[in-house]
Amino acid sequence: MVSRFEHPAGGYKKIFETCEELSETLPATVTGRIPTFLKGSLLRLGPGLFEVGDEPFYHLFDGQALMHKFDFKNGQVTYFRKFVRTDAYVRAITEKRVVITEFGTFAYPDPCKNIFSRFFSYFKGVEVTDNCLVNVYPIGEDFYAVTETNYITKVNTDTLETLKKVDMCNYVNINGVTAHPHIERDGTVYNIGNCMGKGATLAYNIVKIPPTQKDKSDPIEKSKVVVQIPSHERFKPSYVHSFEFVYNYLWLANLRANWEEVKKAAMIAPQPEVRRYVIPLDVNKEEQGKNLISLPYTTATAVMYADGTIFLEPEVLFSGPRQAFEFPQINYERHCGKNYTYAYGLGLNHFIPDRICKLNVKTKETWVWQEPDSYPSEPLFVQTPDGVDEDDGVLLTIVAAPGSQRPAYLLILNAKDLSEVARAEVECSIPVTFHGMYKP
User: Fold this and answer.
1) Can you tell me the mean pLDDT for 425-440?
2) pTM > 0.85: yes or no
3) Rounded distance, CA 179 to CA 359, Å?
4) In 19, 151, 374, 396, which residue has its Cα 20 to 30 A from 227's Cα atom?
């Protein structure tokens, strides 16, 4: 007899079910008091269509992009959502099958074509998807839904209408860019993408997109590569999810490990950990064999060997049996590239998102918000306008509560102690979302 183990939080499966877009906004039922400084919109992206026709999408990153919006006005909240009309979505809906290959779902030739057409379609190469389900961010005065390919999609954040598909390859030499750029206070966007570099070797290009132009021209048209970083191995580029700014420095972790070795190491790891590596910025060769890190609040080390190699040992900031701290956020507006104390994240239990966490990265103190059968999303920090402390503000997260009368709600937490400020419940289910932004 075969026994099956059902996860205690079995209701989480609801966040991976297909839903319909809305034709009009839904009013939310508010409990508590919405902070008066919240007057904009919470924008989120994630998968909303998990199968088309009789064909399922086999990976979480393959479901078709659905954009969500919670609007704040006069202490009230409304909710709206709409599918992004990408080529991948429109063609899938039209043909009732998977047409463009996604991250983990392969598209097969159209069965309605004759045998010769299907045969030659194998020689056309894999068509790159524009399924922009990962994130949304501003470029100039416009907003773009994005994934990790060379395509970004301009959207109207008021109506959630799809406006234009943009191929970044038309402006800079990249094969794809990350969904997590850095945005300066003046609106300048920095991103990174891999490319074919000098000597037919793979490399990474740092791309700069200027802020809003005085002549109202499109900033994307003025995109440029500011620096190229060669790959450590000629034909084995690393997967780059994001990158870091530290004051006037840029940090790119160029992974060299074989993916099979990485997977083996992950299988035997005792439990997930939040690790802090500290990189020394000023190095003298005479300091060989010494710890180059002098920060008083970390036990992380960096030791230089005779050949100039610097070996880093991390400090573990958070660790618990099968407890992961993911989708980390900080007070980005005031502390990007600067010293910070607090990080906020989504807590995963056996990979199931069931809590919101706050971590003091200097003392390792933690705070947790959690409720039974509730599955939150990435928390976004919004600063109190007159706030003084780093954590003067609120966290915004969308929570799925499948067993409740109203199965989803926007949750507002006090960033100081994760106490509940307010919630805005809607009478519809909301599937999983990945990333997003608060638009004032």
Assistant:
1) 96
2) yes
3) 24
4) 151
